Amino acid sequence: MPALWIAHVTVTDEEAYGRYAALAGPAIAKHGGQFIARGGRYVQLEGKERPRNVVARFPSVEAAETCYHSPEYQEALSHARGASERELLIVETSE
Hints:
It comes from Roseovarius halotolerans. This protein is α+β, with helices and mostly antiparallel strands.
């Protein structure tokens, strides 16, 4: 079943986070991920507000998790650490 990779982010260093974004996109695509929302308008109804919200669809939970642990994504993530506060989860869809 398909899965969604959902990230909620507050960027604290735009330059470093830009390096993350430049590397993360290709890493996500390599593992079958497709962005369906990326930093667009949002309405915060509950919980901690994060001004950047990203959703990518993957073929499966396993594909999304493999992407996260891949060398390509970990290289990208090294630029996000210290440049952002984030929450990231993977959730299986019902379709």
